[in-house]
Design a protein that fits this description.
Elements: H1 24-37, E1 58-65, E2 71-72, E3 75-76, H2 77-91, E4 94-106, H3 111-128, E5 131-140, E6 148-158, E7 174-177, H4 183-193, H5 209-219, E8 223-227, H6 233-245, E9 248-252, H7 260-269, E10 283-286, H8 291-299, E11 308-314, E12 321-324, E13 330-333
Parallel strand pairs: 4-5, 9-12
Antiparallel strand pairs: 1-6, 2-3, 4-6, 7-10, 7-11, 8-10, 9-11, 12-13
């Protein structure tokens, strides 16, 4: 959601160390931006913390975001920070409710850029149906940061039909990915490397909580595990899962959904798309009996149009992920051995 909110007229164009001092300049920055843009009854209390009530079992998650560049095709660091924590909660089977939001800003950041990030945060919160209720702002010296880092933490109530745990996975379960892989990582890399294609590669950053909630309504405990393949890509997530459950995973390269331009970009840069980060995808391990219905329901959701069944859990080759290549051979899939794409999220 791209909100149209005019930036207020201010007597400063860039953020300085004084804006992190806790004094007059800090209040000017917060009053002219954060509190106005993200206003809600709990945040408006301006207390050191947030007081609220949640019912039943809860989930809690936290994440830090230091993507470079901070503006990229399809989004910016602000909405990425909201969507990332919202999605982490959704993977727990939770309905996200409240977020904390903390900025570490390098002096010299343009106020216009900070405003654009705030507006993206507001839009992402409104789409996800969550509120920022507490936070913090710090400013560091020039050269001690990289424009802006953001931390978000979130809480939510567990869906009444959710029972999400790797312990529930069994042989025969089907593995479903919700959409095209590697789009976020290659959107970042296409900017860094100056790659140009017939159409722009866009990040897939989006909130998934409404999609997950709807699937839980329909399929409940038949959904055994949900996880989002961010850093390390789908390969790392699948390998980690296989190790944790002491079962094997069979998959086929031909079943992996990927946009043609993303695949071309990966090839140009010598990157394997199964290790490239995603920000708007999830992987679901579901009971085989509901896999086709689950996939059909996902195809009707705007976040699942390209969803596919990509693998099966097996008792063979415990703790190993075996992928059949597009030309028929098989290989063992390992975790990402190092940092393939730094500063990707």
């Amino acid at each position: 959601m791209q909100l149209q909110c005019p930036m207020p007229k201010l007597d400063f164009d860039v953020i300085t160390l004084g804006h992190g001092s806790g004094g007059v300049l800090t209040n000017k920055l917060l009053d002219s931006g954060v509190f106005d843009v993200l206003s809600n009854p709990i945040l408006d209390e301006r207390h050191d913390g947030a007081i609220f009530q949640l019912e039943g079992k809860m989930a809690f998650s936290t994440d830090s975001f230091l993507v470079s560049p901070i503006f990229f095709p399809g989004g910016n660091i602000g909405e990425l920070a909201v969507n990332g924590t919202v999605n982490d909660l959704a993977m727990c089977g939770a309905i996200p409710k409240y977020l904390s939001l903390s900025f570490i800003i390098e002096e010299g950041l343009k106020v216009s850029e900070f405003w654009e990030i705030l507006i993206a945060i507001k839009g992402a919160c409104e789409e996800a149906g969550v509120h920022v209720v507490t936070g913090d702002t710090k400013v560091v010296e020039k050269g001690k940061g990289d424009k802006i880092f953001i931390n978000t933490s979130g809480v939510g109530s567990i869906h009444s039909k959710a029972n999400i745990s790797a312990k529930n996975i069994k042989a025969g379960d089907k593995i479903i990915v919700s959409g095209n892989i590697a789009s976020h990582g290659m959107a970042i890399m296409s900017v860094r490397e100056g790659l140009e294609f017939d159409s722009e590669i866009l990040s897939d950053t989006i909130n998934l909580n409404h999609t997950i909630s709807s699937l839980l309504d329909s399929f409940g405990e038949h959904i055994h595990l949900l996880t989002d393949p961010t850093r390390g890509g789908i390969a790392t997530v699948l390998k980690e899962t296989a190790q944790s459950i002491n079962l094997g995973i069979d998959m086929a390269q031909r079943d992996l959904p990927i946009d043609n331009q993303v695949a071309s970009a990966c090839e140009l840069l010598g990157l394997d798309p199964i290790y490239v980060a995603n920000e708007g995808l999830f992987i679901a391990f579901v009971d085989a009996s509901i896999a086709d219905d689950f996939l059909e329901a996902l195809h009707k959701d705007e976040n699942g149009a390209n969803a596919k069944i990509i693998g099966t859990v097996t008792e063979e080759h415990p703790k190993q992920v075996i992928m059949e290549s597009a030309i028929g051979g098989k290989r063992v899939v390992s975790m990402l051995p190092g940092e393939q794409l730094p500063r990707i999220c």
